[in-house]
Write a structure and sequence with these properties.
The chain is an alpha+beta fold. It has two domains: 295 residues, Aminopeptidase, CATH 3.40.630.10; 70 residues, OB fold (Dihydrolipoamide Acetyltransferase, E2P). It has nine helices and 20 strands. The strands form four sheets. The chain has a nine-stranded mixed sheet with strand order 1-2-4-3-7-11-9-10-12, with helices on both faces. Helix 1 packs across helix 9. The longest helix has 20 residues.
Length: 384
Amino acid sequence: MDTRQHHLISPACGTARSLHSWHFGAPGAGPKVYIQASLHADELPGMLVIQHLRQHLQQAEAAGQLRGQVVLVPMANPIGLDQTWLQLQMGRFEMASGQNFNRHYPVWVDWLRENGHDVATQLGPDAQANVRTVRQAMHQALLRHPPTTELDSLRHTLMGLACDADVVLDLHCDFEAVVHLYMEPECEPGLRSLAPWLGAQAVLLARGTGAHCFDESLSGVWWQLRESLLASHGSEFVATHPLPQACLSTTVELRGQADVSDALASRDSQALLAFLTDMQALEGPDHGPAPQPLCQPTPLSGSQYLHAPCAGVVSFQRQPGDRVQPGDVIARVVNPITAQSQLVCSDTDGVLYTRHNLRWATTGMELAKISGTSPRRTGALLGP
């Protein structure tokens, strides 16, 4: 294992933070898999999963069982981990700028087609050679666009570590939830075994959410570049200058914020090891075939987001993982002054995959999310 330290831009005199990464296997020996934890610094299950995964990968590396390269970032957000306000961890937004740590990642296609640096001029008939060319161009684009703030340098460093990966797993969690995955449709075929290994109960697909999240920045470059070339050079050029979907990336939501235990982390790390074996990055014990999936992918635009119709005490009537039908009561919001309550009901058939961990709601607060099969929302599909 090769341990590396990456220094971030100092935001103030006498202050400095750094990012750490662990590198297993030999670059170029096989597929590169990149896994990071807690980009939202108050979402901790992935940190413990990576500790378990590290032990197994060290043993596999010593035994010569690595067939590719695995990069682990055990703590992807040292900025957010240092933001404690009145004993509460403020890990989702940078307090200096108000920006979400999992937003505003590069729209790579803009950088790759800049005047004087248009990658189209470097492409040829060999698909794998084109992949190498694009990845090299991505690294060069990072050099052309250096960061200017500490938050920018965090994003810049993470992108530099992951932009040439074949598979990217960004480990998050929700408030109270079952395991669920977010990914672009182009990634789903190649990542199909991940959901059953992890026991995911929802796989939510969206081709660009408008949020420029970490995972979709990395997978989106490939289909966006193809579409850009199609628009500028035509279908014949795209056919003779092939670009495969060279990065399969996903956001993995490992249940809820309180679901941090060695038992769960051990189970999840074993699931990831089985997936790494499927990806031919690891030659390990036979895990057997992947379990039967617990769900079928559904469009993220089909998810119903339930909001509190008034302020009050929240009494949830259904649990994460429950299958619900239209009309099912998901929560009751009680006004403690008037004693009146309002019901919050599902109007779709799907799985209640996440709900809030607060039991006092302000008017309009998001309470829960239910997967659905029919698109119902347009525009930005994720919150701020």
